[in-house]
Amino acid sequence: MQEYSSSVASSLPQLPKAPTGIEGLDEITEGGLPKGRPTLICGSAGCGKTLMGIEFLVRGIQDYNEPGVLMAFEETGDELAANVASLGFDLKDLQARKMLRVDHVHVDRSEIEETGEYDLEGLFIRLGHAIDSIGAKRVVLDTIEALFSGFPNQAVLRSEIRRLFRWLKDKGVTTVITAERGDGTLTRQGLEEYVSDCVILLDNRVIDQITTRRLRIVKYRGSTHGTNEYPYLISEDGIAVLPVTSLRLDHEVSDEVDSSGVPALDEMFGRRGFYHGSSVLITGTAGTAKTTLGAAFAQEVCKQGKRCLMFVFEESPQQLIRNMRSVGIDLQPLIEQGLLRIEASRPTVNGLERHLVTIHRLVREFKPSAVVIDPISNLISVGNINEVRSMLTRLIDYLKVNNITALFTALINTRYNQSEMTEEGVSSLVDTWISVRDLEGIGERNRGLSILKSRGMAHSNQVREFVVTERGVELLDVVVGPTGIVTGASRLTQQLQQHAQALAAQQETDRRDRELERRRRVLEANIANLRTEFESVEEELRQINTEEQNRQQTLSSGNERIAAANPPRYNAPSAGENNK
Amino acid sequence: MEPLLDPMDASEEPIGPEYLLHLYITGATPNSTRAVRNIKDICEQHLKGRYELLIIDVYQQPELAQEKDLIGVPTLIKMRPGLVRRMVGDFSDRERVLKALGVVPPPLATDRFALE
After folding, report:
1. Greatest C-alpha distance within chain A
2. Do A122 and B85 touch (CB under 8 A)?
């Protein structure tokens, strides 16, 4: 997790801290527990005090190579080992590797007879020996208050406990002391007055039959820390603390764009899709293909060769795959390729926090490029609106920080007027909000899709009708009728009318073309006639001309013959002149 | 250390003395020195010749502290006779020490007065 410290804080000397390795706790303590000092963890029964202590030790050994000593006053080493084995902590192995020492201190009043003055040096020697033998850096004293039941002399006990904490500080070990919560006080025996460096309060409360565990840092001397109550969980991986809101709002943003998986829907966005790493909300009434849109997006992400994680709260994966196949979205091969993962669970199976932790864990494991959650509105059955909102805020923040595109669907039930769930809930957190709804007209329902908001890019303001076909979601072309955009049967009527009009117009054009052709033909016929007439006249004239020439020729040849018979006279006129 | 003996066997044990006491102290701290002095006193007075007192300095053998489950110091563990009993303190409260040791002294009160 990220360090909270800004540039200012990092330049100042910081209190040395021992990271706990507990998910989220280091984040709100800004690095861990005070190093070399005692920390008090108090809480009522069943809060996980002992577990937190043990996890602090085990994580210290596993992650930070710091050996630890566990001094248990209530449970024996074997019991503790058995209790935490289910969390994957192998105390026996750690003990064998000399990284951990477990010392069970048995305190039984009936066995101890006080006969005068004494001190608790025995405890000091045990602890000192345990610490020195493995070079421990961390110590957990699990419910040291048990001493109070064994030793009636409170004055001695108190001064000895005070001395113990002083001594632990001097030894430089980071100590965790657990204590049962008292009535009106943090601990039954007022241990908080001895341990004043850091106090963590665990709380287990039931609201509306749902248990939520919460953690609060009451004080942390010499350091800033998160001051809120943070929900925490005891999961199969140990304790996980969830900061309610992300501590930072300065995540990287991407300029890349992810396609929605529906080409026509992409067209409605100025940049042809959603920004990568943004959060998208699809709201709609029942049966408006929200899931289909979600699946189309998931398919598109996988087609790009990226991974996508789907959380479905209404259907089983098999059902989802079958249903999506009917609309041409085949998810099965994508799952087989390892690109898609579908996690299905009923919202009521777990509390909200556990859902969140599950999502966190899977996101960390699977490292998806996009996450689809279908639908978030079902979570309302597990928590109240505030809790759902805070959970979604954290989820959206988490995904944004990790640059994962998130697509949520939410059911809006207009009948019960629960639409404010999204409006007050998450709509202000998401970057893109697509609304799908029934456009109920005369005797029919049609699906309409519109973009309510899209941060950072222009978007269409039209309500587009869409149909779900065998080839997936298809947006229909916008048909504008006399009263605006029309859908369904009206759209068909409108289209028919337009078609008829177009046909009529086409016929009219054809008719005009034919008329023109006819006229052209007539004119051309006229031209041909005239040309024939002209040709005949020309022919006639040429005939006359030829006859004339022939006549002339005959005449001249006749003259020559006459001239040949009679010798020519001097100055006789030319033959031509004579002919005239 | 000696194995923990069954109380029944211990009572029948002919070899060892009747009382086997282990006293764990921490060096020469005031409580420890006082405890040694007091317990020796008590034993000499009430169990003369019938006891074996073993004094162990835990500082010298720190691993014993966990083994013997020591918390308060000085601690006296009565190994026999009877049930194993633990006593914490410097043994200034003789009445309780004797009661815990199982010594039934009719002349106890006079003893105490005589001592004082």
Report:
1. 197
2. no
Nearest CA in chain B to A101: B66
Closest CB to A118 among B31, B58, B63: B31
Phi and psi, residue A167, nearest 5° = -65, -40
Which residue stretches of chain B have pLDDT < 50?
A: 1-3, 5-13, 108-116
Domain map (residue ranges) of chain A:
7-111+118-241, 257-477, 479-513
> Is A314 in the active site?
yes
pTM summary value: 0.68
The one-letter amino acid at B6? D
Q: Do domains A7-111+118-241 and A257-477 have the same CATH topology?
A: yes
**Which residue among A75, A229, A267, A314 is the active-site one?**
A314
Other beta carbons within 10 Å of A230: 21
Res. A420: pLDDT tops 60: no
User: Rounded distance, CA A390 to CA B86, Å?
Assistant: 56
Average pLDDT along chain A: 84
A569 confidence band (pLDDT: 50, 70, 90): low
Among this protein's residues, is A23 annotated catalytic?
no
Measure in Å the smallest separation between the Cα of A36 and chain B Cα atoms.
Answer: 23
Read out DSSP for A457-493? S-B----EEEEEETTEEEEPPP-EETTEE--HHHHHH
Amino acid at A304: Q
**Alpha-carbon span A229 to A43, nearest angstrom:** 13
Q: What is the fold of A257-477?
A: Rossmann fold (3.40.50)
What is the token pair recorded at A370? 């996009």
Q: Tell me the C-alpha distance between A221 and A106, whole Å.
A: 33
- Could you give the 3-state DSSP secondary structure of residue A111? helix
CATH number for the region A7-111+118-241 comes to: 3.40.50.300
**Alpha helices, DSSP H only, in A99-247?**
121-134, 146-150, 154-171
CA distance to A259, A334, A335, A362, A372, per residue, from A303 (Å): 11, 8, 12, 21, 15
Into which CATH architecture does domain B7-115 fall?
3-Layer(aba) Sandwich (3.40)
| H or E stretch covering B52 | strand B51-57
pLDDT value, residue A414 = 62
Q: What is the ipTM of this complex?
A: 0.79
Q: Does residue A433 register a pLDDT over 80?
A: yes
Q: What is d(CA B92, CA B74) in angstroms, rounded to the nearest whole number?
A: 12
Question: What's the CA angle centered on B72, arms B66 and B73, to 5 degrees?
Answer: 95
Nearest alpha carbon to residue A490 among A450, A449, A439: A439
Q: B74 in contact with A at a CB cutoff of 8 Å?
A: yes
Is the separation of the CB atoms in A146 and A107 below 8 Å?
yes
Structural domain boundaries in chain B = 7-115
In angstroms, the CA A121 to CA A128 distance is 10
Q: Which amino acid type is present at position A482?
A: P
